[in-house]
Specification:
By secondary structure, the chain is α+β, with helices and mostly antiparallel strands. It has helices at about 25-30, 45-60, 70-80, 130-135, 155-165, 210-220, 270-280, and strands spanning about 5, 10, 30-40, 40-45, 90-95, 115-120, 135-140, 170-175, 180-185, 190-195, 195-200, 225-230, 240-245, 250-255, 260. The radius of gyration is 20 Å and the shape is globular. Bound molecules: pyridoxal-5'-phosphate.
């Protein structure tokens, strides 16, 4: 299969997908993105992702010249033409405010078109040992901007946090602000404490993760007690379990944070149950939990 991707209304080969050096996504990080995972060719919670993109666009006054339905259609075509009908794929969507002379002011709308890139590539195989044994994470001071609910491509702090984790021999980083574990560098964070599931509330400090929402739905179905409150780092020694959630991350146990063992140091039973439920939602033919189906 010759890979194709979508760029500004056309299906092209990767080497033909060229954008301007003056693109505002490149110059200013003036762009949004989404990552969607397809299981056996079917995008999981696509409506939630496209809805978040629309909300983010409205928040930064970006007018996307394409409807969610049109995007859905493009994604469907990309999955088919790239040969992912029966396999797992990662769909990447990026929309920038388009090219223009380097000037902070928005270019006049008549003169510029958004740059829209949509691609589908093979999903990397998950390292099952990691998902069973869990990972070690470090904490990093959260110095990000105050609109983390917008999925902006400005990921410099996330990049630095991830690399710091790797340099420290850990696998991931968790942002901490005022002694609160806010979220991971590319995932949301949950702790289990005294039988309660605890995660930071939605708002400008975190990305409202699609996977986070799925986990909250699973928790509701299972009658878990949920506290929407950022877990305090002062309670780290008392956490029974911890895990990260994200589209690519799925449900990843965290068994050590800053060298402190979490719970038994092994994947806990709540994490295990949520992994199982998530697996049956994404891979099984079982019921779909109530994701928002309308735009
Ligand atoms: C900072 C951050 N938080 C949370 C998430 C998880 O969001 P989702 O579950 O929608 O992928 C991501 C995913 O990329 C992220 O980058």
């Amino acid at each position: 299969v010759t890979p194709t991707l979508f760029l500004n209304g056309r299906f092209v080969r990767p080497e033909q997908a060229v954008i301007s050096v003056e693109d505002r996504g490149f110059v200013f990080g003036d762009a949004l993105y989404e990552v969607v995972k397809c299981y056996s060719g079917r995008p999981f919670r696509l409506h939630d992702h496209l809805e978040r993109l629309e909300k983010g666009a409205a928040a930064i006054r970006l007018v996307i010249p394409m409807t969610p339905l049109e995007m859905e259609d493009v994604i469907d075509q990309l999955v088919a033409t790239n040969g992912f009908r029966g396999s797992d794929a990662i769909v990447f969507i990026q929309v920038s405010r388009g090219p223009g002379p380097r000037d902070h002011f928005f270019p006049p709308r008549e003169e510029t078109e958004c740059t829209i890139v949509i691609s589908a590539t093979a999903a990397p195989a998950l390292d099952l040992v990691r998902y069973d044994r869990g990972i070690a994470a470090i904490t990093v001071p959260d110095k990000r901007w105050g609109m983390c609910n917008i999925k902006s491509v400005g990921l410099l702090m996330n990049v630095l946090a991830k690399q710091k984790a790797r340099d420290a021999g850990a696998q991931d980083a968790i942002f901490v602000r005022n002694d609160i574990l806010v979220e991971g560098a590319s995932a949301n964070f949950f702790a289990v404490l005294n039988g309660q599931l605890i995660t930071h509330p939605e708002g400008p400090r975190i990305l409202s993760g699609v996977t986070r929402r799925v986990v909250l739905e699973i928790a509701e179905e299972r009658n878990y007690t949920v506290r929407l409150e950022g877990p305090s780092i002062s309670r780290l020694e008392h956490f029974d379990e911890a895990f990260l959630t994200g589209t690519g991350t799925e449900i990843l146990p965290v068994v050590a944070i800053d060298g402190v063992q979490i719970g038994s140091g092994r994947k806990g039973s709540v994490t295990n149950t949520i992994q199982d439920e998530f697996h049956s939602l994404t891979r099984g033919q079982s019921r779909e939990l109530h994701g928002s189906e309308a735009y």
